[in-house]
Amino acid sequence: MLWQGILLGLSLSFLVGPLLFAIVEASLERGFRAGLALASGVWVSDLLYMLIVYRWVDALMRVTALPHFRLWAGLAGGVVLVVFGGITLMKKSAPTAPLQPTAADRLLDVLDGPEPPGVEHNWTRWGYPGYALRGFLLNTVNPFTVFFWLGLASAFVVSNQLSPKEVLTFFGGMLGVLVGTDTLKAYAAKRVRLLLQARHLQRLQQGLGMALLLSGIVLLVRVFMG
């Protein structure tokens, strides 16, 4: 079960989609720690779905079978992507006053490294929890995430009649790989950030914001076209 979970986690880590764009965008905007914070929100969301699959898979199936569930789930996911993409596109390059570093900041300074020349801190009022909340929302209200976990539960967990220990081993292997690969993605984006000038960073962030926005629009179009 452990190796099957690891293989599934590796497969998922190579998918290109809104979550990857969001992690990279956060790392480019504020560095490794921001990307890691956003990824942690995704992991918490995945843990929530794992708990639901493990304990309440029947209830999840009943919810997804409700009339118009796909419609409302698609609308919610599309709106979230459009909002976050639009916010990224509208961000101004004017620097804001940086927050005072915390003890957690100093612990990760060895990975985060110095700021590239000409780049100022661009921070939000909510700090790292704001990025974590963004990751949690992007993953939780994404209808593809819901149906992925539902399909995983029906096609693998329930059909194979896995024991609780086998389920935990499988999910643990999968989540462990996702945590590791998401961390590497955030760190790689930070390294790229150090090599780019401020104007290049702004263009790259706008490109990622446009990718999020278009992903939301495509999802909304699919919802309305049935």
In short:
The chain has 10 helices and no strands. The chain is mostly helical.
Secondary-structure map with pairings?
Elements: H1 2-13, H2 18-30, H3 32-64, H4 69-90, H5 103-107, H6 109-112, H7 127-140, H8 143-158, H9 164-195, H10 198-225
Q: In words, what does this structure look like?
A:
Helix 2 (18-30) packs antiparallel against helix 7 (127-140) and helix 2 runs antiparallel to helix 10 (198-225). The protein has helices at residues 2-13, 18-30, 32-64, 69-90, 103-107, 109-112, 127-140, 143-158, 164-195, 198-225. 79% of the residues lie in helices and 0% in strands. The model is unreliable at 93-112 and 115-124 (pLDDT under 50). The chain has one domain. By secondary structure, it is mostly helical. It is globular and about 55 Å long.
